[in-house]
Amino acid sequence: MGYTVTCWSCGKTYETELDAPPRNRRPTPVKTMFPDAEQYQLEQCISGICSDKCYDKYIIIDPSVFTYDEKGRRFYKGERAVFIPDELIP
Q: Which of 28, 29, 30, 2 is nearest to 16 (CA)?
C-alpha cells in the first residue's frame, strides 16, 4: 500500500491504494507512474480526497443518482462509473 493521508472532505484517515511516494517527494506525475489506475486512486495521491463518494460532494450533478460500494467507488445504473456519464453533464 501507499502512505497515510487524511481526506480533507470527510476527515477519514486512510492509506492510499497506490504505492506512490507522497506528493512532495514524487519525481514523476502519479498518472504517469500508474497509467491503469482508477481516477479515485489517483485523486488519493493527488488531492488526498479518499473516494468518488467524497469527490462527488463537490460536483454540480446530484450525487443521489449514484450508488457507492464499501470503498466509496461510484456506480451508475449498476455499472462502475469511473467518470461522470456524459448523459448527466449539463
A: 2
Q: Which domain holds residue 9?
A: 4-88
CB 32 within 8 A of CB 59: no
Domain count, the chain: 1
Q: Which long-range contacts (CB under 8 A, 24 or more apart) does 80-86 make?
A: 81/52, 82/38, 82/39, 83/39, 84/59
Identity of the amino acid at 31: K
> Do 32 and 51 contact (CB within 8 A), yes or no?
no
pLDDT in tens, 22-56: 766 777 888 898 999 998 898 898 889 999 999 88
